[in-house]
Amino acid sequence: MPETEYTLRSEILDNERRIWIREPASLQTDLDLLVILDAELYRNRVQAPQIIEDLFESGTLAQTLVVYVSSVSMDVRWIECPCYPPFAAFVTKELIPSIHERYPKTVQAKERVIAGLSYTGLAASFVALTHDGLFTKVISQSGSYWSNDCWLIREFDGQSLNHPPAFFLDVGDKETQEYVWHKEDVVQTISQVEGVERFRDMLLKNGYEVRYDTFSGGHSAEAWATSLPNALKWALG
Hints:
Shape: globular
Structural class: alpha/beta
Order of helices and strands: EEEHHEHHEHEHEEEHEH
C-alpha cells in the first residue's frame, strides 16, 4: 500500500521531522494506531515496512494506521530519548493531535501502540508511563533501561496508573556487555539484558501486564527484525 508523508514542526522541541503513514485499505471504520519511533532505523535497517506489509496481507494488522516518526538525527536522538519530558509533550500535544486531525477514525482507537528500539524503546516506555491512558500497549525492543542509573525503573516503582499500558519487552541473549562507553558523558554500567530484566521485574511487581521474550542475537537490526513480527502480533493481532 502507498504511504503518505508530511513534515511536522514541533514548537515544543523547536525542530521538525518527517512522518510517514501507512494507511489501511479502508479509512471509513475505527482504526487501531501504531506509532513507531526511530523511523529511519526501523524503515531502513529493520525493514519494518515489509514486515508490516506481510502482516497486513495475512490479516493480522487489518485496520491499523501505522505512523513512523523520524528521530531527526543521532545528535537529537541523544537528547530526546533518555526520558526527556519535552519529547513526551511533543508526542502527546503535537504528534497525536496531528494524527487525529488527519485521521479522525483514530480518535476512538481500541489499541494505541507505541514502539521503539534501544534508546527509543526507553523513550516509548517513558511516554506511555507519564501519560496515563494515552497508549494501551508498548513495544520495546532491547530498551535502554540502564540509562541514567536506571532512572525510569526507580521512578515508577511503587506508582500505579488508572489505565496502565501492557508491555512487550525483548532483548537478545548476546546483549551481555557491561561498562559500555557510548559517548563521553553516557556510560552503560549494566548489560542490556540486566536493564530490561530489571524493568520487567519492576513492572510485574507493580501489576503491569508484561510479555518478555529473548531472541538469539545481539543489539542489531537483523535480530530486531526476527522479533518484531511476534511483537506486532501480540499488540495488534
